[in-house]
Amino acid sequence: MEALFSRLSNDFVLICVYLVLALSLNLINGYAGLFSLGHAGFWAVGAYCGSAFIIYSHQAGPGIPGALLFCGGITAAMGGAALVGLIVGLPSLRLQGDYLAIASLGFSLIVVNILNNLAVVGGASSFPFGGLVWPDGALYDLKARVAHNLTHIVLGVLAVGTCTLVIRNIRHSSHGRAILSLREDEVASAMCGVNVVKYKLLVFVLGAAFAGLAGVLYATYTTRIAPEAFNFMESVKILLMVVLGGLGSLSGTFIAVIVLYEVPELLRMSHVTIAGSPVADWWVMLYALVLVMLMILRPQGLLGSKELFECAGIRRLFGMAGRGGREA
Amino acid sequence: MTLLSLLLDGLALGCIYALIALGYTMVYGIIKLINFAHGEFYMIGAYAAFIFLAVVRTTGLAEPYDTAMLLLCAMLVAGAAAGVLAVIVERLAYRPLRRASRIAALLTALGVSLFLQNAALKVFSQNTEAFRKPPLVVDRRYPTFEINATDVRPGAVFDTEVFWRDDVGSEQFLSPAGFAISEEEFRWAAEHGARRFYRYPRVTVRRKQIIIWTSVALIAVGLHFLVRHTRIGKAMRAVSYDFETAGLMGINVDRVISFTFFIGALLAGAGAALVGMYYGTIKPTMGIMPGLKAFVAAVIGGIGSIPGALLGGLALGTAESLVQLSPITAPYQDAFAFAILIVILVFLPNGFFGRHEREKV
Amino acid sequence: MTTGRLSYELPAEGLRREFALLALGDLTIKFGGLAALENVNMAVYDMDIVGLIGPNGAGKTTAFNIISGVYRPTTGQVLFQGRDITAMRPHHITRLGIARTFQNIRLFRKMSVLDNVRVAYHHHNRAGLLSSIVRAGIFRSQERDITERAMQFLRLFDLDARSRDEAGSLPYGQQRRLEIARALATEPRLLLLDEPAAGMNSAETEQLMELISWVRDQFHLTVLLIEHDMRFVMGVCKSITVLDHGRVIASGTPDDVRSNPAVIEAYLGEAK
């Protein structure tokens, strides 16, 4: 019972983290068409800014309540990541397509390289702070752990909800249409009076800020972070979630994140072995294979740029009339 | 380490970057694809050379195990293995996507890269393997200066490192620069038949560096000949200029693309064999960083340009070695390379030698 | 010839200079040493329909690209309503009142027909990002406004029935019309049309000629258009400027231009 709760809540919180990451990458990649391969970089910046804020302000004034620390951490994480997003957004003004992808990949590698050598945040070893927000050893205590998990479930739901709502509302506004037009044709979009520079930077800043939010959530939940956790593979994983769900489809992202997170977890639990090694060991290869097959067979992802309830099949299933496509 | 010896090291590393960058640049020039899997072709090449040398050594096929021929064979085997893999990958994964968006193609390349990396982790050991290089590839340094045997006595101080050759003929270290030769060391050397004493100048060239430089120079000349003076080279240039028209002119575009992949991977594989000998170790993840760095090199030179890739590789290799000069900057070697990448992409997107392209409005 | 900023003489019509809606002064642009346009002077007056013609590669589209801010000229300047817009970014120029269409139609193909027009309304939107996120009252009223006006445009161009379809799924003629509708939705003073009749049959061309005159009157616009179809140009334009190899070789009324020996040579020379 206790193990089940801890497993379920663990999955839930981490799915929330990945959801916020994938949704924010969908804003950058799916809506604005800016191909970013460095989302884990923003995630790392958020995690480290948030953690550093919490740890150092706790050291400065041990009496500050945890909730306040956490709010400050969120602000620091989102602010720091947004600032970095602004810097990374600058090359996007000059670069397109695969060139931008490479530049953002380079950025995320720079972030990991710097974090690995930055002594104030622990360098290559992990940067722990669980013991600060929760008293030392408290997490070994069942009650405290349940409280910790429950808090993070609530926080996760709030984060995912905010992120979805913000991105969805922007999408269905004049600003959202301007962002979508960037993806379609940048020159034509400028000719329609869209300030290309402003919207590209806005998208990067907003996407990075949400990745930062995911970072602080991840850091306080796992209570220790190391640069290795934010490597290139993570960027690919987040990208795969977005691409599988469909570039520009929020409901598709939800499905893809849950599938891509849960399948390897279930495989790990199943104790199935292939060629003598546990099936989880083969997962990355499977991941890569899924990516290649997806690109060859269905490059637009599961739902394309539509939302779940805009797909004809789903509408028929629920007996809804009319053609797909929403107005507002 | 002095500046000059760092530069020499950087130049050797730069040669390897150049070899890998050539493959990136040729493939990009022809189908506008950033082939992420290129670093993995390189890694497979290193393992092919490793297995080849192990087989040769255990079966005693090549005696003596110490010829330039063996070295060449190892490079060829590595190149061929990487080349065949590249052709297969192109056929299975990239060809169906030739008309798809460039983003889809890029993601596929990423997928292939991850797949090969993890397949290698499964097939080979996850650990670093010691690459048993042929004895021809030694650390022997040039030039050497003989020292008068009478000058070498206990208590003598030399401003450079002193070596001697023992009765078997192998090199032994006697004393570091600026230290007095101890009685003990001297007696031990004398017991082992030390007759010739010599020292190296502060800056030396290692034999393995010379091997890398000459191989890369020869490969570059060969590639230039292939691209400029052969039929297939002409076809490659035609396809890279305009893929559709080249097809209409009767060029078998698919074959030219396969060939380009093969040659590009061949160069990377040969480079991997050289790297195995230079550093003495290989591992399944060895392709990631050199692959990415070589891509940076290709961008510096102007992606699509063959001389650009060569010069970009050399430039990046030496620039990286300069970062090593100070212990403060040394850990940030990778960040430095990728910062160069971003700066070049933003301010000089066509690199130093790339073709200038303007978007048609 | 030096570039005397602001002191250039416009051919034959120097006196009307200050009334010109759009004036190009000594415009030169070089791509890698090769001049695509050289010392181009030209003036477009309020409510005119002006044709820009010339053989292929004469630099007509390049001139459009400079006017709309996609390229920056090497030397020379562009004045719009007496204002120097040479160094301005495209979206800024659009907001000042210049809209354009493209030679190869550039719609937002994956967006709906309605959204294509609504994007062009973007700069009239007063609802900020924050009020859009929290769906404030101003957001709702603005959205209603924008949608209503966009639908009006679609109705004018007989596209309202397909407002929800993807723009890329429209037939060619409707795509051309949608592109013009989108350009008009930015509420321009000057409309640049790059080969609007390309790929149309004679009946469609006829319709388009009427449409352009009608649009001009309806929206009090000035139109500058590039076209290869001489019947179209002669029929709809009040004045014509001819470019060849990046230089203006003639300008005047359709009759003047038709009989100009330099123009005849440029066109016949091309046919050789």
CATH architecture of the largest domain in chain C: 3-Layer(aba) Sandwich
Mean pLDDT of chain C: 87
Based on CA atoms alone, the radius of gyration of chain A comes out at 20 Å
Unreliable residue runs of chain A: 321-328
Q: What structural category arises from helix and sheet content of chain C?
A: alpha/beta
Strand order of the largest sheet of chain C: 6-7-8-3-9-10
Largest interface: A-B, 42 and 40 residues
β-sheet strand percentage of chain C:
15-25%
- Tell me the overall shape of chain C: globular
Global shape of chain A: globular
Q: From the helix content, strand content and strand pairing of chain A, which structural class follows?
A: mainly alpha
Tally of alpha and pi helices of chain A: 13
Find the CATH topology of the largest domain in chain C. Rossmann fold
Written account of the structure:
- The complex is a heterotrimer of chains A (328), B (361) and C (272).
- With 328 residues, chain A is an all-alpha fold.
- Chain A has a domain at 2-230.
- Chain A has helices at residues 2-31, 39-60, 66-94, 97-117, 130-133, 142-171, 174-184, 186-191, 196-222, 232-245, 250-270, 283-297, 312-317, and strands at 127-128, 224-225, 273-274, 277-278.
- Chain A is globular.
- By secondary structure, chain B is α+β, with helices and mostly antiparallel strands.
- Chain B is built from twelve helices and eight strands.
- Chain B is elongated, with a radius of gyration of 23 Å.
- Chain C has two domains: 1-97 and 189-272, P-loop containing nucleotide triphosphate hydrolases (Rossmann fold); 107-187, no CATH class.
- In chain C, 47% of the residues are buried.
- Chain C contains ten helices and ten strands.
- At the A-B interface, helix 3, helix 4, helix 10 and helix 12 of A face helix 4, helix 10 and helix 12 of B.
Features:
heterotrimer; A: 328 residues; mainly alpha; two-stranded antiparallel sheet; 4 strands; B: 361 residues; alpha+beta; ABC transporter involved in vitamin B12 uptake, BtuC; 2 domains; four-stranded antiparallel sheet; two-stranded antiparallel ribbon; 12 helices; 62% helix
Write the layout of secondary structure elements.
The complex is a heterotrimer of chains A (328), B (361) and C (272).
Chain A: H1 2-31, H2 39-60, H3 66-94, H4 97-117, E1 127-128, H5 130-133, H6 142-171, H7 174-184, H8 186-191, H9 196-222, E2 224-225, H10 232-245, H11 250-270, E3 273-274, E4 277-278, H12 283-297, H13 312-317
Chain B: H1 3-31, H2 38-59, H3 68-94, H4 102-123, E1 129-130, E2 141-142, E3 145-147, E4 162-165, E5 171-175, H5 183-191, E6 197-199, E7 205-206, H6 207-229, H7 231-241, H8 243-248, H9 253-279, E8 281-282, H10 288-301, H11 306-323, H12 333-347
Antiparallel strand pairs in B: 1-8, 2-7, 3-6, 4-5, 4-6
Helix pairs in contact in B: 1-6, 1-9, 1-10, 1-11, 2-3, 2-4, 2-9, 2-10, 3-9, 6-7, 6-9, 7-9, 10-11, 10-12, 11-12
Chain C: E1 20-31, E2 34-45, E3 49-53, H1 60-67, E4 75-80, E5 83-84, H2 90-96, E6 98-100, H3 113-120, H4 129-133, H5 137-156, H6 172-185, E7 190-194, H7 202-219, E8 222-226, H8 230-236, E9 239-244, E10 247-252, H9 254-259, H10 261-271
Parallel strand pairs in C: 3-8, 3-9, 6-7, 7-8
Antiparallel strand pairs in C: 1-2, 1-4, 4-5, 9-10
Helix pairs in contact in C: 3-5, 3-6, 5-6
